[in-house]
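Researcher: Please predict.
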Amino acid sequence: MRTLIQNGTLVTATDIFQADLWIEDGKIAAVTGASAPGWQADLTINAAGRYVLPGGVDAHTHLDMPFGGTVSIDDFESGTIAAAHGGTTTIIDFAIQKKGGTLREALDTWHAKAEGKAVVDYGFHMIATDATESVLREMGDLVREGVTSFKLFMAYPGVLYLDDQAIFRCMLRAGEIGALTCMHAEAGLPIEVLVERALAQGHTAPIYHALTRPEAAEATGTERAIALAEMARVPVYIVHLSAARALERVREARDRGLPVYAETCPQYLFLSEDALRGTPEDPFEGAKYVCTPPLRPAYHHEHLWRGLRNYDLQVVSTDHCPFCMKGQKELGRNNFAKIPNGMPGIETRLHLLHEAVNEGRISLNRFVEISSTAPAKIFGLYPRKGSLHIGADADVVIWDPNCSFELSHKNLHMRVDYAAYEGKVVRGAPTHVFSRGELIVEYGQLRGRPGRGQFQRRSTFSL
């Protein structure tokens, strides 16, 4: 099938220009100033007055993930349906090694979770929870299968936590096999002490999730992660960076020429610690906003936006990990430490980032770069994903920059029972979403079927 998108304004990470875009056999076949001679289209879409963008790449999601005695409410069907409606055409989720288990078991489990359900394409990072000799050997096997990044935790002792020696061993191994190490950088052991003290003093409300995970814990963790990577002489990617002091550590390392990369998330750009206080009638309403790292005071926002403008932050991912208030977040009504950590965001990322364009915080090119091109490059998907190059997968979004859209629960497709930005109206929304040339969303109607999404083997780190 041949599709013509005509009269649109093509936007990439570097350019903005008027052109027609042709799709054939799931690939971008041509980008022309006028209709290609002798070509006939089976489907023609007039994109006049709209942008034509590469599909979004969300490099940080947690679908169907066990946590805190429950499971994130979006599985690979509902989560990727929501992603598609929001203009994201590729996600990278996290497979989690059980303590004492193997990486192979974890990867097989997550393949089974996605099989027959995903509407958009997907890849996997691997969360390693120990660093035994067998695990280090397995890391090479996974890289050969296209799982080329490993996430390590300095937080959650007894569950996901690794000490510095184990992290260093994994980093050294990653360097040998061309993998990228992703770090959850918080000083987890002192945090556990702060949590114990807060509960002993009777502090149980959601706001104490933030007060027991101070900025210093993230800054210290970030500095340690960078130091370990520097000693191992490997690149490192800091996930979900939320605070100014952690960003300073990244900026300083990059200024020294170290291969340090970092992402932030929309919640750290648009929400603040105040949301965790809930309402005067019910402080537990703040549980909706419990995520890790926690939301920070609003003054951090401008530091993060400056980091995005200055390329100290490379990516905006979602850390989409949704739990319903009813039956899930409620597990921590009398103990903030038992509130499942995570927020919904897979569907609203592009809406929010385009609103930042409207507000003059970032350029239109930077919007495309941080939401699509940069994550595709960093995680071994480019130029197949994240670009409008001829021969790339035809993951294409037609975006109406003037469409008004309310980010309310009634308008969204995530399975969670609340909206993080309820009542917020933004300007800009996708009208058509293509994945590998197939029209999967058209004016808010799902046309793609569950199971059409394909696992993406990613190349090793090469930036």
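Model: The chain has twelve helices and 19 strands.
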